[in-house]
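Duplicate of #3305? Posting structure anyway:
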């Protein structure tokens, strides 16, 4: 079976000779679909309204490889890798396809915890994922307000994503639903903070992304977010994830007191998810640092 894997993942497993500026600690896999996704998100190169190469997700290249070989290597010597993340692509039969990928990893002896990033699905499918070694689910909400969910062409409604988040928390437990939120799609800072607070209120967690314009997508000419504003969102997430109330965080925003400690600028998401240079060129500006060491050594980059 063919699958796409991020170039950094292939480098970590010795399947590509490309030199990387930071090692990935998660193996990122992407369902291979010739025609791309049935969804029409205007920022995503995988969507059917995009003219981009289907080798791209955000700014990262995802070459196709044999799943069986990748699974064999991952089982034999995972190197720096501590987790597997399967990014699903909506198409006919994609749920069965995801189960087949998970079973293949299992049969090859891959014992790492697994995350699946997916659009809303039934609870029965989540139960099957759990049996096959999945510990966390990435919820592809992306947009921070109901209006933006419609405007950027998300395939489900605001309410459906949140119902799904609660379903994931029921099956996997607190903080095991990672709500993916992209800053810079057209929301205000306050709206973004409110969406993050909602995630923590329903016992989920937030994986923070910076909007990245990708050539060939309808949003290719929109600018990436201001780095200072992104740092404020990282500071807000940091506080909310440690129990701060929404009012307290909004008060700090109004007073200009949202500044992130270095650890808050490290990539957020499932344990060991570091997505090196998913949102940025290695030359910067760096929105999400793939390690604390990099965050500490880059003092001054908007911190
Ligand atoms: S937070 Fe990272 S590992 Fe978790 S689902 Fe999202 S991309 Fe995958």
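Output from current build:
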């Amino acid at each position: 079976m063919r699958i796409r894997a991020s170039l950094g993942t292939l480098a970590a497993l010795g399947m590509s000779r490309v030199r990387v500026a930071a090692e990935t600690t998660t193996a990122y896999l992407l369902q291979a679909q010739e025609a791309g996704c049935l969804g029409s998100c205007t920022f995503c190169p995988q969507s059917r309204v995009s003219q981009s190469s289907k080798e791209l997700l955000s700014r990262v290249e995802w070459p196709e490889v044999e799943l069986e070989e990748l699974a064999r290597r991952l089982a034999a010597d995972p190197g720096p890798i501590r987790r597997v993340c399967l990014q699903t692509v909506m198409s006919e039969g994609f749920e069965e396809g995801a189960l087949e990928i998970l079973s293949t990893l299992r049969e090859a002896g891959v014992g790492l915890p697994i995350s699946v990033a997916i659009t809303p699905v039934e609870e029965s499918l989540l139960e099957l994922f759990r049996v096959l070694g999945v510990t966390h689910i990435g919820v592809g909400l992306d947009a921070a307000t109901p209006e933006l969910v419609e405007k950027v062409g998300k395939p489900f409604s605001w309410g459906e994503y949140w119902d799904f988040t609660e379903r994931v928390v029921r099956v996997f437990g607190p903080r095991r639903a990672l709500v993916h939120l992209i800053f810079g799609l057209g929301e205000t800072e306050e709206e973004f903070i409110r969406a993050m607070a909602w995630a923590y209120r329903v016992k989920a967690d937030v994986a923070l992304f910076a909007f990245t314009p990708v050539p060939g997508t309808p949003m290719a000419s929109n600018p990436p977010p201001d780095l200072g504003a992104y740092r404020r969102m990282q500071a807000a997430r940091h506080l909310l994830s440690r129990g701060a109330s929404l009012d307290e965080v909004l008060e700090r925003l109004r007073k200009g007191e949202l500044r992130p400690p270095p650890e808050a600028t490290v990539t957020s998401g499932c344990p060991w998810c570091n997505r090196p240079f998913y949102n940025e060129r290695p030359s910067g500006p760096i929105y999400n640092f793939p390690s604390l060491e990099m965050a500490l050594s880059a003092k001054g980059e908007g911190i």
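Confirmed duplicate; merging threads. The chain has ten helices and ten strands. The chain has one domain: 2-297.
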